[in-house]
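Input structure tokens:
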């Protein structure tokens, strides 16, 4: 249920960025060079991409890292002089981006979003790969274990894909590649047929799956008994239900987006108003346990996480993430007001990295927490008397990424609640804050991070590729809702103190805002 829902949304949303007004990237020094003038379209855009990546991404603020990039680009420049297909060009750029292990920095390699292969493979660590969904006419292959595709073992295909799929970690890679395997452009980049998949199963049987138009897709899927499940994905940005007899409030938080983050969508709810109303309802019904389900949340605007946490611990006491910002021409095109900022009394220099909290414009600022905030900004709970005093359980899944990671990591480092579920799809400390650009000679679109987000407990043993749950639980067990069984068991056993202290269906907005494949 979960995966098919995400896939359907992904197919609708993969092209969203193509409709945006993405700026072209130019650099006068690069475009005046002999290599650029004499190069073909691929070589020209390679030079521009390398310049953009080197000037913008925080990793390349280090001179030694930048020098390695230039040496690698020199080799690729020669290769680009011989290629004739844009898919070959995008493959080379994608390998440059993927080497950063940053899911926010990527090349959009898909061109023909209307052409897909109507079959989805389960990709889950070392577990056998099976067919999870397919077109209705091929439903007999559901659940069958895959050995090879087009004569190549699937494991080798995935190992090759790791070289060009940008991802924070292995879990993030598995999430993305399951969707990319649907796209004919993915197989073109692999140097394989983009018209038919010849699949061989471990039982020796074979099947040929031709590409189809996305509009012709009629899906069959592996059936799972999801009836009666509380944690089934809801088609809302955020939603809650109170189980008064159990003293539990279940909140499903699917996207860090609301009316404030998307001002052109005034029909959206405000998250701060949602939290205020939910907390009032919880207080009135003597809720003892709050469950925040983030297993379907791929991120968005992290300010919504601050709003939530302000109801769980006095906001002034919360240790926050730190952010470092790299200044670049592309970054200044998106955020021109940084041109007015200073650091130690000096103007910001292009190419340098700065601690965001130490800019002169806010270094000595004092926040008056008693002053109501403007209605155009998110309003935090600043009343310590209204802090929720019960137990908090966060549910983390493989799709939990970006701003959802910031929320959960901040909660962990501030000893707020218990995290249950699966390893995260993002890193606790990570690159982020995406900028977009388009390369002028080939039309290739790229994204790049320009910030480093560092967790409050940076440097701890745990600070690695994943945020591990306090208790690991299989969220996709087809027979039992294990995570909810844990919630009810936890609630029965916990010694909690009573606090003294439905969203409308916005499914029509879901498909335009929720975008797991964009990693924004």
């Amino acid at each position: 249920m979960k995966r098919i829902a995400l896939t359907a949304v992904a197919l609708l949303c993969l092209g969203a960025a193509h409709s945006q007004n993405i700026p072209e990237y130019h650099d006068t020094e690069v475009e005046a060079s002999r290599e650029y003038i004499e190069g073909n379209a691929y070589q020209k855009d390679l030079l521009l991409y390398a310049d953009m990546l080197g000037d913008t991404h925080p990793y390349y603020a280090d001179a030694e890292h930048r020098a390695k990039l230039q040496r690698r680009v020199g080799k690729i420049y020669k290769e680009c002089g011989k290629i004739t297909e844009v898919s070959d060009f995008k493959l080379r750029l994608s390998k440059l981006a993927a080497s950063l292990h940053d899911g926010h920095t990527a090349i959009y390699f898909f061109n023909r979003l209307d052409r897909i292969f109507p079959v989805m493979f389960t990709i889950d660590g070392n577990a056998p790969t099976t067919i999870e969904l397919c077109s209705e006419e091929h439903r007999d292959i559901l659940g069958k274990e895959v050995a090879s595709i087009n004569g190549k073992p699937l494991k080798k295909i995935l190992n090759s894909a790791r070289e060009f799929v940008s991802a924070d970690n292995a879990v993030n890679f598995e999430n993305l590649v399951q969707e990319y395997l649907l796209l004919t452009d993915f197989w073109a980049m692999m140097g394989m047929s983009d018209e038919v998949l010849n699949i061989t199963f471990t039982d020796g049987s074979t099947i040929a799956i031709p590409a189809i138009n996305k509009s012709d897709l009629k899906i069959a899927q592996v059936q799972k008994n999801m009836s009666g499940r509380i944690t089934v994905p809801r088609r809302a940005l955020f939603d809650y239900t109170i189980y008064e007899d159990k003293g539990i409030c279940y909140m499903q938080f699917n996207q860090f987006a609301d009316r404030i983050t998307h001002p052109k969508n005034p029909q959206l709810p405000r998250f701060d108003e949602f939290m205020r109303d939910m907390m009032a309802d919880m207080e009135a019904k003597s809720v003892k346990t709050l469950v925040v389900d983030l297993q379907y949340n791929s991120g968005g605007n992290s300010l919504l996480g601050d709003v939530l946490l302000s109801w769980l611990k006095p906001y002034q006491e919360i240790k926050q993430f730190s952010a470092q910002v790299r200044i670049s021409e592309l970054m200044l095109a998106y955020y021109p007001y940084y041109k007015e900022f200073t650091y130690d009394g000096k103007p910001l220099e292009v190419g340098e990295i700065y601690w965001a909290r130490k800019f002169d414009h806010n270094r000595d600022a004092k926040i008056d927490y008693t002053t109501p905030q403007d209605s155009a900004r998110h309003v935090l709970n600043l009343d310590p008397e209204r802090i929720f005093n019960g137990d908090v359980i966060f549910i983390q899944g493989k799709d939990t990424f970006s701003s959802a990671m910031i929320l959960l990591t901040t909660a962990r480092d501030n000893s707020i609640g218990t995290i249950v579920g699966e390893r995260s799809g993002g890193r606790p400390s990570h690159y982020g804050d995406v900028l977009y650009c388009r390369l002028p000679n080939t039309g290739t679109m790229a994204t790049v991070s320009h910030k480093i987000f560092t967790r409050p407990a940076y440097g701890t043993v745990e600070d690695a590729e994943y945020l591990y749950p306090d208790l690991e639980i299989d969220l996709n067990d087809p027979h039992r809702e294990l995570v909810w069984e844990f919630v009810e068991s936890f609630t029965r056993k916990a010694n909690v103190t009573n606090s003294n202290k439905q969203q409308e269906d916005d499914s029509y907005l879901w498909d335009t805002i929720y975008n797991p494949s964009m990693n924004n």
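DSSP finds 15 helices and 22 strands in the chain. The longest strand covers residues 445-454.
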